[in-house]
Design brief:
The protein is mainly alpha-helical. It is built from 33 helices and no strands.
C-alpha cells in the first residue's frame, strides 16, 4: 500500500505547485514580450513605417464604412496612432495580445481543460505579438480575432434553445461581421462557432455552420459584383495576405490553431494517460511556452530591417551622427542608403571633404533621387529640396507623395510648412484644419495656425524665414532628369546657399562633368570656406590635366601642397598601369580609395557601365 501511495502523493504535490509555475510563467512571458517589443521592435519604428493617422469627425469615419472590413481598419488606426510613444505602443500591442488570450482561454476551457486552454491562449498571444516584427503588421489581426472570438463567446453565454431565433441571429451576426469587420473575421467566426458547437450533435448547429460557410463565399461574391474597386480575391481574403509568405503563414496559424484544437478535443477523452504523466505534461507546458516565445521572437526579429528603418527614422529626426554610424553598416544595394548618408555628411559639414569615403557606385542617382523615382523615395526627394530651400520642388514631391499616402502625417506636415513659406495661406489652412482633427498632431497643427495670413511672422521665424530666403523668386520647371539645373537656379538666387553649392559640385563630379564644376566654382568664396575642400582640390587638379589650355579661376584659394603631391603619386601609378588599370586596382584601392580620382576610374557607373535594377 505504501508503494501505491507514492504516485498519488507525487500527483498531489504537482497539483499544488502547478498554479505557482503557471503564475511565474505568465509573468516571465509578459516580461519577455515587453522587452521584445520595447527594446528590439520599437513601436516608434512601426509608427514611422506605417504613418497611421486617425482623424475625428464623421467624414473620416464614413470613408471607412464604404467597404467590408473598414471598421477594423478604422479601429486599428485609432489604436496605432499611440505608437508615437514607445511605452504606450508596447502596452497597446500587449493589451490586444492579452485580451485575445483571455477570451480564447475562457472559450476553449470547456473543451480542452484549464492547462491546455491556457497554453493555447498564451500561444496565440505570442503569435499576435511576434507579427509586429514585420513592421508592416497592423493591429487588424488582433482586432479581427478578438471580435470574432468575443462574438462566439457571447453566443455561448446566450445559449438559447429556440432554433427559430438562434439560426437567424447567428447568420445575421456573421453578415454584420463581414461588412464591418471583414471577410477574415467572418471566416474566423465561422471556424470558432463550428468547432465549439458541432460536438453537441444538434441539427441546428450543423445547419447554422453550413449557412455561415456559404456566407463566406456568397458575401464576397456579392461585394465583388457590386463594387468597382474590390475583386473577389480581395473581398474573400480580407486582411490575409498570401503574397507575404511568412506573415501569411503566421496569420493562418493564429486564426486556425484554436478551432483545430477544439475540434480535436474529443480525442483527449479517448486517450488513457496516467494522472502523474498528465501532471508532468502540464508542468512542462509553461516551460515549453517560454522556450517557444523566445525562439519565435528570435526568428521573427530581423535586425537588418530594423536598422534600415532606424536609419531613415534618425534622418527624419536629423540625428546625423547616428545616421552615419548606422548607414555604414547597411547594404549599399539600396540607393536610399548613400542618399541619406550624403545628406548626413552635408549636415555634419563633411560632404565636400569625405563624400568619396563611402562607395558612390550609384553615382548621381545616390545623391538626388528624382531621375529614377518610385513611391518609396517621393518624400525623400521632398526632404532634400526642403533642406536646401527649393521649396516649390519640395512641395511638388510632397503632393506626389500624398497621391500614394493621402493621410501620412509626415506628408501633411511638409505640405503645410511649404505652403506657409510660399505664403499660400488658404492651402496651408486647409491642411492645418485636417491635421488639427488628430489627437496626436493637433498641438503641432495649432502652432502653425498662428502663421496664417501673417507673412511678416513667417519671415521672422527661424526655420520658415530661413527657407524663404533661399527660395528662388522666379518660377521654373523642376528638372527631374537633370536636377543639376535646379541647383544652378538656386545658386543664381543665392550664391551663399552652401547646400546647393556642395550638391552642385558633387553632382558634377559624380557625372564626370568638370566643365559644370568650373562654371560655378566662383561661388566658393560666398559659402565661407577657409580653404578649398579636399574633393574640390582633387577635381580641380584632374580638370587642369584634362583641360591644359584652360585654367580654373579659384580666386585667392590655392590647392594644398599635400593634395598636389598625392595627385602626382596617383598619376605615376596611372602611368605604371596605363595598359591595364584593372590589374593595378588593388594598389589604387589601398592608397586612394577615398579620393575622387579612384571614383572616376574604378567606382563610377559611367566607367564600370553598371546596370541598375530597381522598382519603378
Amino acid at each position: 500500500m505504501c508503494l501505491s501511495k507514492k504516485p498519488l502523493n507525487a500527483s498531489l504535490k504537482m497539483k499544488k505547485i502547478r498554479p505557482l509555475i503557471w503564475s511565474l510563467a505568465v509573468i516571465l512571458l509578459g516580461i519577455i514580450s515587453a522587452i521584445f517589443l520595447y527594446k528590439f521592435i520599437n513601436p516608434l519604428l512601426i509608427n514611422f513605417k506605417q504613418q497611421p493617422l486617425f482623424l475625428t469627425g464623421s467624414p473620416f469615419f464614413s470613408s471607412f464604412m464604404e467597404y467590408p472590413g473598414g471598421l477594423t481598419e478604422y479601429l486599428s488606426l485609432f489604436f496605432s496612432q499611440f505608437f508615437v510613444s514607445r511605452v504606450v505602443g508596447t502596452l497597446v500591442i500587449l493589451a490586444f495580445a492579452t485580451a485575445n488570450a483571455v477570451v480564447l482561454y475562457y472559450l476553449a476551457k470547456k473543451h480542452l481543460g484549464q492547462d491546455i486552454s491556457l497554453g493555447l491562449a498564451i500561444s496565440v498571444g505570442i503569435l499576435l505579438t511576434g507579427l509586429h516584427a514585420s513592421y508592416e503588421a497592423t493591429l487588424q489581426t488582433s482586432i479581427v480575432l478578438l471580435i470574432s472570438s468575443l462574438s462566439v463567446f457571447f453566443l455561448q453565454l446566450l445559449n438559447t434553445r429556440k432554433n427559430y431565433f438562434k439560426i437567424p441571429l447567428i447568420v445575421f451576426l456573421g453578415s454584420l461581421m463581414y461588412f464591418y469587420i471583414g471577410a477574415t473575421a467572418l471566416m474566423a467566426f465561422t471556424a470558432l462557432f463550428a468547432a465549439t458547437t458541432l460536438y453537441k450533435k444538434d441539427v441546428s448547429n450543423y445547419l447554422t455552420a453550413l449557412l455561415l460557410i456559404g456566407a463566406c463565399f456568397a458575401l464576397p461574391a456579392y461585394t465583388s459584383a457590386t463594387s468597382a474597386y474590390m475583386g473577389y480575391k480581395e473581398a474573400s481574403l480580407g486582411i490575409l495576405e498570401p503574397t507575404r509568405k511568412p506573415f501569411f503563414f503566421v496569420q493562418l496559424i493564429t486564426f486556425l490553431i484554436s478551432p483545430v484544437l477544439i475540434l480535436l478535443s474529443p480525442l483527449k477523452k479517448k486517450m488513457s494517460i496516467k494522472p502523474l504523466a498528465i501532471n508532468t505534461i502540464h508542468i512542462a507546458l509553461p516551460i515549453l511556452l517560454i522556450a517557444f516565445s523566445t525562439a519565435f521572437y528570435y526568428f521573427s526579429f530581423n535586425k537588418d530591417k530594423k536598422n534600415n528603418l532606424l536609419f531613415h527614422y534618425l534622418a527624419k529626426n536629423k540625428q546625423w551622427a547616428e545616421v552615419i554610424s548606422i548607414g555604414k553598416e547597411l547594404s549599399f544595394n539600396d540607393r536610399k542608403v548613400p542618399f541619406q548618408l550624403n545628406r548626413a555628411y552635408y549636415h555634419q559639414n563633411i560632404l565636400i571633404h569625405k563624400a568619396f569615403q563611402i562607395p558612390q557606385y550609384w553615382g548621381e542617382r545616390g545623391l538626388i533621387l528624382t531621375s529614377h523615382y518610385n513611391s518609396e523615395v517621393l518624400m525623400l526627394c521632398s526632404d532634400l529640396y526642403y533642406d536646401m530651400g527649393h521649396i516649390k520642388a519640395s512641395l511638388h514631391w510632397a503632393y506626389e507623395a500624398q497621391t500614394k499616402f493621402p493621410f501620412s502625417p509626415d506628408v501633411l506636415q511638409r505640405i503645410i510648412l511649404c505652403n506657409l513659406i510660399l505664403n499660400e495661406f488658404n492651402t496651408a489652412e486647409h491642411f492645418i484644419d485636417m491635421l488639427s482633427r488628430s489627437v496626436i498632431y493637433r498641438k503641432w497643427a495649432e502652432q502653425q495656425r498662428k502663421f496664417l495670413n501673417k507673412p511678416q511672422l513667417v519671415s521672422s521665424d527661424s526655420e520658415l524665414g530661413e527657407k524663404q530666403k533661399l527660395t528662388p523668386d522666379e518660377d521654373f520647371f523642376t528638372n527631374q532628369i537633370q536636377p543639376i539645373y535646379d541647383l544652378s537656379m538656386l545658386l543664381k538666387k543665392n550664391p551663399s546657399n552652401k547646400m546647393a553649392f556642395e550638391y552642385y559640385m558633387i553632382y558634377a563630379m559624380l557625372t564626370h562633368d568638370l566643365v559644370k564644376m568650373e562654371k560655378e566654382i566662383h561661388c566658393m568664396g560666398s559659402v565661407g570656406y577657409k580653404k578649398i575642400p579636399i574633393h574640390l582640390e582633387e577635381a580641380i587638379l584632374l580638370f587642369s590635366v584634362l583641360n591644359k589650355e584652360k585654367k580654373i579661376d579659384t580666386g585667392y584659394y590655392t590647392v594644398s601642397q599635400e593634395t598636389s603631391q598625392r595627385f602626382r603619386a596617383y598619376s605615376e601609378l596611372m602611368m605604371k598601369y596605363r595598359s591595364n588599370l584593372k590589374q593595378g586596382e588593388p594598389e589604387f584601392r589601398q592608397g586612394y580609395k577615398d579620393t575622387y580620382w579612384y571614383y572616376i576610374h574604378f567606382v563610377s557607373p559611367i566607367t564600370t557601365k553598371r546596370e541598375f535594377k530597381e522598382k519603378k
